[in-house]
Amino acid sequence: MVRAVAGHLDPDEFPSASAGDGPMTMRTPRGTPRPAAPAAPLPGLGPRTWGEVPRRSRQVLVVAGRDRNAPVSTAVLYEHTGAGWRAGPGRPAHNALNGWTGHHREGDLRSPIGVYNLTDAGGRLPDPGTRLPYDRSADFSVGGTGFAGEPLAGSFDYVVAIDYNRRPGTSPLDRTRPLGPERGGGIWLHIDHGGPTRGCVSLGADAMKELLRALDPDHRPVVVMGDAASLER
Predict the structure, then answer these.
(1) Alpha-carbon distance 153 to 137, whole Å?
(2) What are phi and psi of 181, to 5 degrees?
(3) Residue 99 near residue 132 (C-beta atoms within 8 A)
(4) Exposed, middle or buried: residue 131 (CB in 10 Å: 0-12, 13-18, 19+)?
(5) pLDDT beneath 50, residues of the chain
(6) Predicted structure pTM score
(7) What is the pLDDT of residue 82?
(8) What pLDDT score was predicted for residue 37?
(9) Fewer CB in a 10 Å sphere around the end CB: N or C, the chain?
């Protein structure tokens, strides 16, 4: 489904916010019971983190950062086959310049630690075949250079919105911030530009296209993201 919407640009310029340095939280409505996660935990996820993964999720993208203050990480998509979890290949990724935080604030240049739904996608280019709602818009264009002087052009050709401080079921370009603007937003998975982000997670162009084609809303996909030590709790 292609959703036409007017929006703003650069999500990496919409710093994000996470749940706080306390326990990580899913972006589910208040008062909604959180089902327990499937019995077999995924590699690198400790009991607290694994307890945040809903039982109904059958696709889990794990983004594990090198350390709390590093901008480099590895992403692996796990899919439940009915017989157990199947791991995809490990993909190199970038996160925010200053690493990770459990309480993201606007402009802190850190990516939010947590477990978040993946519900909406979009990009400057045509839908590559995703089953997620897809908003194609010229507003996904971006220019300028990144922190390492690398060009940013093409970074938002394909994106998946991370449901941190956003309204699910809308274009990734939607500027609604339920936690307030001071907690940031516009945290996306997008195409890697060869350097750190302002809060998003970036993957290679081929990896992003593969991810978009793999994600299935019927499988309740989520991303589990943070530095490796935090995810092991």
Answers:
(1) 15
(2) -65, -25
(3) no
(4) middle
(5) 1-37
(6) 0.84
(7) 83
(8) 46
(9) N
- Residue 210's region, left for phi above 0, alpha for psi from -120 to 50, else beta, is alpha
Per-residue pLDDT, 41: 83
Q: Scan for tokens 């603007």, then name that residue.
A: 181
Alpha-carbon separation of residue 158 from 4, 66, 83, 125, 226 (angstroms): 15, 25, 32, 7, 22
How many Cα atoms are found within 13 Å in the side-chain-facing hemisphere of 48? Answer: 12
Which structure tokens are listed for 16?
């994000």
Query: Residue 206's CB: how many other CB atoms inside 10 A?
Result: 10
**207 phi and psi, to 5 degrees?**
-65, -40
Instruction: Say how many CA atoms lie within 13 Å of 132 toward its Cβ.
Output: 33
Which strand (E) or helix (H) includes residue 205? Answer: helix 205-214
Q: Is-contact 132 217, C-beta < 8 A?
A: yes
